[in-house]
Amino acid sequence: MDQRPCCFSGPHVDTSLEKIKMAAELSTSINIKEPRWDQSTFVGRAKHFFTVTDPRNILLTNEQLAHAHKIITDYREGIVSPGLTEDELWRAKYVFDSAFHPDTGEKMILIGRMSAQVPMNMTITGCMMTFYKTTPAVLFWQWINQSFNAIVNYTNRSGDAPITVGQLGTAYVSATTGAVATALGLNALTKHVSPLIGRFVPFAAVAAANCINIPLMRQRELQHGIPITDENDNRLGESSKAAQQAISQVVVSRILMASPGMAIPPFLMNHLEKKAFLRRFPWMSAPIQVGLVGFCLVFATPLCCALFPQKSSMSVSRLEPELQEKIRASHPGVERVYFNKGL
């Protein structure tokens, strides 16, 4: 009879013990204030935003969000959950970041989170590009789109200053009215152009509307400034100049984010609608359009968010004169300031 010991028992026990030891020894010095990947490079920012904008994050339950919140808040206080590994810590951080505002700490509105961008935008954009031929349809879908954008812009604003219901209402009405009026104006100008060019009207409207909606929904930041810090996160004041840079970068990102999903499908749909399949099943046009837009957005959303660092910066010399004086008096060594640009 073979008396040799089982070849699997020893290594299996050793590996388990090693894992337990590694988990028990998780360092409390991991910097979870910053993303896991190098944010000075586009690739690092892209990896970060592919994780943040992952649509699966919107399926997380309140219990899962609360668990991630506890892991992160405990870790920041030097408390490590028993058995926690480094990968689990980073996963908890990205769950936390996907649902809680970086400045206020509030749980963000579900459809305003960046993880909801792909499913929400693919549906709205697909419908805007399918139902663009009549004024009522343009009006309805542009209003839906700008209302959604207003929620996203409010949810992902920069800064921690409270905004009143009155201010929010004024911002929403002015933003949506201006954006929808722009869309209708562009639609009226292109009544007599070719069908292919007509398909690009929604994109032109969205691009123009973003230039209106985002600044108006974040007008409080432009009026009162956003928090700026030194490289060690020491708060130095509030700057309107920083808000202008932040909002400009967000406008550029959002327009480019919409570009692939609104520029590529029109060519494909113009070609497909001449084929027998869509002539036979015209109701398939909207689902196909939504699917094409969704495919584009899966990549465009994180890649365009990654165009600029989330933690933006600017030279002290570009700030308001009085703020420059204040910083040079209290923090003479500071040459650059940092701020959350929003998304």
From TrEMBL:
Annotated GO biological process: one-carbon metabolic process; serine import into mitochondrion
Cellular component, GO annotation: mitochondrial inner membrane
Keyword Manganese on entry: no
Keyword Repeat among UniProt keywords: no
Topology class, membrane: Multi-pass membrane protein
Reaction(s) this enzyme catalyzes, per UniProt: L-cysteine(in) = L-cysteine(out); L-alanine(in) = L-alanine(out); L-serine(in) = L-serine(out)
Cellular localisation: Mitochondrion membrane
Keyword terms of this UniProt record: Amino-acid transport, Membrane, Mitochondrion, One-carbon metabolism, Transmembrane, Transmembrane helix, Transport
Regions crossing the membrane: 288-308
GO molecular function: monoatomic ion transmembrane transporter activity
Major subcellular location class: mitochondrion
Entry similarity comment: Belongs to the sideroflexin family.
Function: Amino acid transporter importing serine, an essential substrate of the mitochondrial branch of the one-carbon pathway, into mitochondria. Mitochondrial serine is then converted to glycine and formate, which exits to the cytosol where it is used to generate the charged folates that serve as one-carbon donors. May also transport other amino acids including alanine and cysteine.
Name listed for the protein in its UniProt record: Sidoreflexin
Originating species: Oreochromis aureus (Israeli tilapia)
Upper classification of the organism: Eukaryota, Metazoa, Chordata, Craniata, Vertebrata
Gene designation: SFXN1
